[in-house]
Amino acid sequence: MSLRQQLLNLLFPPKCPFCNRPLAGEGPCPHCRQAAFWIEGPQAVSAGNAFVRCACAGWYRDELRDSLRRFKFSGQKGYAAVYGPVLAQTIRTYLPGTYDVLTWVPVSPARLKERGYDQAQLLAQETAKALGTQAVPLLAKTGHNPAQSSLAQGRLRRANVAGVYAVPRPEAVAGQRVLVIDDILTTGATLDEAARTLRAAGATQVVAAALARTPSQLD
Fold first, then answer.
1. What is the C-alpha to C-alpha distance for residues 131 and 3, in angstroms, rounded to an integer?
2. Torsion of CA 26, 27, 28, 33, to 10 degrees
3. pLDDT per residue over 23-52, tens digit each?
């Protein structure tokens, strides 16, 4: 940790992104490590179509849902530093030896300008750091579609993301097993489209990981 970061932590002690208690180390506070919204066992893994499976750390509910909303919509970029080690442990548990390179599902240029940051990129970077690797930009979003959260049906979500991703450097993807990071898994439409695009560019396999999944899948 840099001297600057040590001074900042002294002046502004880091807080748990789930309950706002002071943090003494890496990851959530001891209280939130035992929270009921974390997932273990078979429910932590969802099958996809273009991606083989997606491992999720928790349920999108309670304090985890509220925390992710602040992360995405209220400028709480620092939450990624706590999320990263959590998702890294999920990947170690459920996706060992399944990928060669780690990337993320990007937001559109318009969304990036509006929000000021790409939450999935921050999550992927902190997750990669905890795994001892790097997050590599492999996908680009070429269209600015409505937010998936505004659509209530799975078929509408699938149509909404059809064709919106591209691989600017196919040579970086060809022959690689790719792990794609996103923040929330709902129907899997976004991750499936990202994975389909990567497979079309030559990826041999795509797996995925998300910090949270919705308790019930939409049709």
1. 24
2. -110
3. 877 789 999 999 999 999 999 999 999 999
Q: Largest Cα–Cα distance in the chain?
A: 51
Query: Quick check: 194 and 105 in contact, CB under 8 A?
Result: yes
- Model confidence, pTM: 0.86
Tokens of 6: 């040590």
Cα 168 to Cα 9, 136, 141, 165, 172: the distances in Å are 39, 12, 10, 10, 9
The yes-or-no verdict on residue 159 having pLDDT over 70 is no
| Helix/strand/coil (H/E/C) assignment for every residue in the chain | CCHHHHHHHHHCCCECCCCCCECCCCCCCHHHHCCCCECCHHHHEEECCCCCEEEEEEECCHHHHHHHHHHHHCCCHHHHHHHHHHHHHHHHHHCCCCCCEEEECCCCHHHHHHHCCCHHHHHHHHHHHHHCCCECCCCEECCCCCCHHHCCCHHHHHHHHCCCEECCCHHHCCCCEEEEEEEEECCCHHHHHHHHHHHHCCCCEEEEEEEEECCCCCC
